[in-house]
Amino acid sequence: MAALRRKQVTVRREALLLLGALLTAGVSHTAAAQSPRLEKSDITIGVLPITNYAAVHLGAKEGLFKEQGLNVTLRMMGAASPVAALVGGDYDAAGITWPAMLLAYNRGIPLLPVSETDRATPGSANYVVKADSRYQKAADLVGKKVGVVTLGGVCDLILNDVLRAEGLDFKAVSYTPIGVPDMAPTLLRGGIDAACLPEPLLTAAKAQGGIRSIMDLFADQYRDWPLTSYPVTEKFAQANPNTLAAMRRALETSLKFAHDNPAKVRDILPTYTTLTPEAASRISLPFFPEKSDFTQANRVADLMDRLNLLPTKLKRPPIVEGR
């Protein structure tokens, strides 16, 4: 058993060193013909129909993956855990939140981030209540039933951190996962007391009336909050180093393209979300950095440690620590 564990550690270290070398390489528009032969040219990336994934959709539309010799399929993820789906081979890479990825790493599933998706800006998500609700602020949600996109996600983690800082019992909040399209209807019919509602539905729900905001999730110290990355498994990284490098270049180029072209971001949103072009022109866009900075995930890890989500301090992947 000890020998097996040593072998697993060695394999893991080699994979991390490989990815580190790939990620420190410069991103370029080098033609695929000038690149090393790809082990796999057809790749599938798991995404969701929300604004966070605009950059990868733009990259596919603008041919930035084809420039790297890749044929990319963007597949909408279902209700199953994206970590389990990625490990199970449903996708080559998938959009996975930083909390989920950090927890996976601490549970012996060291996924390797290839690129960020985006970061959150003020207005990207609000806690909302019914217009006639007596609740006025985050502290009023202690002991209440609150709808969130997913348990252990950014909605409940940030609210818990805010309540913790105020000396309140955040564990008394009853979180209920609800699909984003069902969030506002469930709130309006009284099924929950409050909801964490992100774009692209936040602006539309406010316009329809009946709800109001009591907390901007990404204001103050939570501004430009790191949300999600596209990781691959160690197995994929080891078997496909050239493909991984091409994916890295394509995703990073897509990220910068979104950073430089906010109008094109708004144009593409109606093609894969329920947003109309008019609504897409009004919503709060996330922040697409010019390049990925995985050390941003330390902000998430610090928050998770403040909330004591694990019995011991979170272990952080070397790439998150800047190594």
Strand and helix map with partners:
Blueprint: H1 2-24, E1 42-47, H2 54-61, E2 71-76, H3 82-87, E3 93-94, E4 96-97, H4 98-106, E5 112-120, E6 125-130, E7 145-148, H5 154-165, E8 174-177, H6 180-188, E9 194-198, H7 201-208, E10 211-216, E11 225-232, H8 234-239, H9 241-260, H10 262-272, H11 277-280, H12 297-306
Description:
The protein is an alpha/beta fold and 323 residues long. The chain has two domains: 2-121 and 224-306, Periplasmic binding protein-like II (D-Maltodextrin-Binding Protein, domain 2, 3-Layer(aba) Sandwich); 125-220, Periplasmic binding protein-like II (D-Maltodextrin-Binding Protein, domain 2). Helix content is 39%, strand content 18%. It has twelve helices and eleven strands. It has a five-stranded mixed beta sheet with strand order 8-7-9-6-10, covered by helices on one side. It has a three-stranded parallel beta sheet with strand order 2-1-3. A three-stranded antiparallel beta sheet has the order 4-11-5, with helices on both faces. Helix 5 (154-165) links the parallel strand 7 (145-148) and strand 8 (174-177). It is globular. It starts with a helix and ends in a 17-residue tail after the last helix. The model is unreliable at 1-11 and 21-33 (pLDDT under 50).
Query: What is the CATH class of the largest domain?
Result: Alpha Beta
Helix-and-strand structural type: alpha/beta
Residues in helix, %: 25-40%
Domain tally:
2
- What is the third-level CATH name, the topology of the largest domain? D-Maltodextrin-Binding Protein, domain 2
Biggest sheet strand line-up? 8-7-9-6-10
Order of helices and strands: HEHEHEEHEEEHEHEHEEHHHHH
**Oligomeric description of these chains:** single chain
Q: At CATH's second level, what is the architecture of the largest domain?
A: 3-Layer(aba) Sandwich
**Largest β sheet strand count, sense and barrel closure:** 5 strands, mixed
- Beta content comes to 15-25%
Q: Which consecutive residue ranges, at least 5 long each, have pLDDT under 50?
A: 1-11, 21-33
Radius of gyration: 20 Å
Distance, first to last CA? 29 Å
Helix count from the secondary structure assignment: 12
